[in-house]
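can u do me a favor
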């Protein structure tokens, strides 16, 4: 298993880059999305995490001049639900770093198909 993060400061930097829109649109990868989602789910209720992710994604898209049509509400909700289910299987005493690394290891190469999307 590869450790993506060594400490919470690294995770905080990813979250701050997303929230402050200082991360470039091409630098905000799938792993970055997962990192922010884990951070939110560990610090907020699932409903609050969804709202924060949703508003953050809109802000990020607007800041980088990307149309809001890129955002998919069902996909965001599905990912957060999926990530939450993975987190619930872990020891609740694990650190944010350990949980984030485990989620990235498990879901870093995953996709969630959305209804109506053709599989390739």
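np, heres the sequence
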């Amino acid at each position: 298993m590869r450790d993506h993060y060594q400490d919470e400061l690294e995770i905080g930097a990813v979250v701050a880059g997303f929230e402050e829109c200082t991360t470039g649109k091409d630098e905000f990868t799938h792993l970055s999305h997962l990192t922010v989602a884990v951070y939110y789910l560990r610090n907020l209720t699932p409903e609050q995490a969804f709202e924060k992710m949703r508003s953050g994604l809109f802000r990020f898209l607007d800041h980088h001049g990307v149309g809001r049509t890129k955002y998919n509400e069902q996909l965001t909700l599905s990912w957060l639900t999926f990530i939450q289910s993975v987190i619930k299987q872990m020891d609740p005493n694990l650190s944010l770093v350990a949980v984030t690394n485990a989620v990235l290891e498990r879901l870093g190469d995953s996709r969630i198909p959305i209804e109506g999307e053709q599989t390739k």
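The mean pLDDT is 91. hope that helps!!
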